[in-house]
């Protein structure tokens, strides 16, 4: 197995997390509109500055901010993951090397 195959790339992870969080926000908004007593959207309000319940501009702002949070997580997570993956692959290679 190629040691580089265990590394993550920033763009796919950032897009996946951004879309996941934007979709989750949109789902909570739609759910809140269909079932007003559930109030799922209230979990998002402290996390998304400027978003209130709910107007078109703030819904769009919430989608953009949720997407940006996904990228923020990716920017922090991917280098840390790759650092540990690199260290683990180096340890694996050094463990297989014959002692001299």
In short:
The protein has 100 residues and is mainly alpha-helical. The chain starts with 9 loop residues before the first helix and ends with a helix.
Q: Helix coverage percent of residues?
A: 55-70%
> Termini distance?
25 Å
Series of secondary-structure elements, N-terminal to C-terminal: HH
What fraction of the residues are assigned to beta strands by DSSP?
A: under 5%
Q: Report on the biggest sheet.
A: none
Spans of 5+ residues with little confidence (pLDDT < 50)? none
**Cα shape:** elongated
Which radius of gyration do the C-alpha atoms yield? Answer: 20 Å
* Number of helical segments with 4 or more residues: 2
Number of strands: 0
Q: What class, by secondary structure content?
A: mainly alpha
Mean pLDDT: 89
Fold topology:
Layout: H1 10-34, H2 56-96
Report on this model:
The chain is mostly helical. It has two helices and no strands. Helix 1 (10-34) packs antiparallel against helix 2. The two termini are 25 Å apart. The mean pLDDT is 89.
Which terms would index this structure?
100 residues, mainly alpha
